[in-house]
Model the fold of this input.
Amino acid sequence: MNDTFQALSSSVRRKILAYLSKTDLTAGEISERFEMSKPALSKHLSILMNAGLIQGEKKGQYVHYSLVKENLFANMNDFLVNFCPQGRPLKLESAEIKKNKKTD
Amino acid sequence: MNDTFQALSSSVRRKILAYLSKTDLTAGEISERFEMSKPALSKHLSILMNAGLIQGEKKGQYVHYSLVKENLFANMNDFLVNFCPQGRPLKLESAEIKKNKKTD
DNA sequence: TAAGTATTTAACTAATAGGTTAATTATATC
DNA sequence: GATATAATTAACCTATTAGTTAAATACTTA
Done:
């Protein structure tokens, strides 16, 4: 869980996850979307890999990255369950949440 | 959202939240639960405060801290909604999640 | 095989995070 | 008012993080 939250503490990495939630991308395609060197991006990708939030598959000279959604949800659930008194998995009322929404 | 995930990236701070999910505590009571100096704990508390995840109320010479659960859920929801294709709030099947559970 | 492209690794640097002890602030009590 | 307690702030140190450029690795193609 530590690795997960550590990985999620960077907005760059959260954006990578958001991109991958739409479609798989190669390392190069990901790096095009950021104003940052490829090695820097590569490090972010390896942090997400180590946290089990993404996976990479080498195809020829490319590495295709994809989201591992189950791990994302599993870790979030493990965490959030602490705050549900009944110990049940999440059941949120969207209205109550929207009320407190802050734009980022 | 950055502040929230930054705050959650520390296991000490996640433990503080877990304690506060059970009951309100003073700064001193919180620091007793960790092997760390009071100033160090105080800094963790201020990070959680800045993220809006806890609030402190001064009563006499004590400061009583409590969880602000709504902000926790709101931020998590804002984040997780990205990964729900329909854009709906979370609806997870606990069985599928348990399968991938990793102990921390 | 040589040259080009995709990606990662290595070596380095600057900024940030997380801890320490000492000092300060605010309240309580004698 | 003096002293004790709770909590935070200040000053400092070390380790980690996040970026850089240069080099290495792996694959493709002429």
Q: What stands out?
A: Residues 10, 12, 36-37, 39-40, 43-44, 47, 58, 60-62 of chain B lie near DNA strand C (CB under 10 Å from a C1'). Chain B has one domain: 2-99. Chain B has a mean pLDDT of 86. The beta strands of chain B are 25-26, 54-59, 62-67.
